[in-house]
Specification:
With 118 residues, the chain is an all-alpha fold. It has two helices and no strands. It has helices spanning 2-22, 46-73. The longest helix has 28 residues, at 46-73. The termini are far apart.
């Protein structure tokens, strides 16, 4: 169930990006234009449909986000990646290691020097 909702969520996210990129730029947006109301009486056909589609996709995105959050809440605690397949955690016993006694140093022996011949 969760994977189906996740796939729908990803498809809707990609669709929102595509629809927003297709929308035409607004002349007098947040930055503003000349301050005139010349576009007030203009017809908006393409922008209306794309705005409605964006709104519907945003609503579906919100619903899938909330449902994924609720499904994730009802899972148990997160499992460790080192858990064994039976569901039980692998237990390792930590045993302190005593350092081995250092071997006694052997007395240094001189190497016989060989004459260097050229």
């Amino acid at each position: 169930m969760e994977s189906v909702i996740l796939v729908i969520h990803l498809i809707v996210a990609i669709a929102i990006v595509a629809v927003v990129l297709v929308q035409p730029a607004q002349d007098a947006g947040f930055v503003g234009g000349s301050g005139s109301m010349s576009n007030l009486g203009a017809t908006r056909t393409k922008g209306d449909a794309l705005s409605r589609i964006t709104g519907y996709l945003a609503a579906v995105f919100f619903i899938t986000s909330m449902s994924l959050a609720l499904l994730a809440e009802h899972h148990g605690p997160a499992k460790n990646i080192l858990d064994v397949s039976t569901g039980q955690a692998a237990v390792t016993k930590m045993v302190p290691v005593k350092p081995a006694a250092a071997p006694a140093k052997a007395p240094e022996q001189k190497r016989p020097s060989a004459p260097i011949s050229h």
